[in-house]
Amino acid sequence: ELREVPSEIAIDVSPAMMQQVMPVANDYIAIFTTGHDHPDVEPLLYDPGRSLIYGVNSLDDAKKRRAEVAVVSAAFTKFLGDWAHVRTILAKDAATYGMDDFEKLTKARAQFLESEASMLQFLIDHPQGWTLMEYKSGVSLPTYQDTAMEQDLIKTMGVRDAAMKALRSVLPQ
Fold it and tell me: What are the tens digits of pLDDT across the range 130-140?
């Protein structure tokens, strides 16, 4: 589908505009190729049911995954910035042009990824006191003995859950 976009857009816009659109298309593809280079992060681009916090067994695990998220997040940020600029020009170049659903989906994915990064950052910023709670399902999740810290972690995970819900609402059913 991505490969078909240039020919579809070319129907509506000038060759000069296509020169600006193609780098943005490459930015978008870079999100997924970057994610593919980071297998812990890649599932989040496709499946909002998975969390990076699963399987974090140590502070080093959290730091490693947070670094991977930063690389993929940078690809999202570059695309969204370049896309916002080109979209404004496209709106003038083609009267009927619009990709609102695509834009909502991309922003929702970026928001979801950032919320995952926030959970990992919380563990990194508060390295003392969290241990792994093993659940019957086999999933291990960090938990704090300190009630206040545990409540803060739950709030951080709540932001992630809201981002997941927003992403699921715009994903194709």
Answer: 988 888 888 88
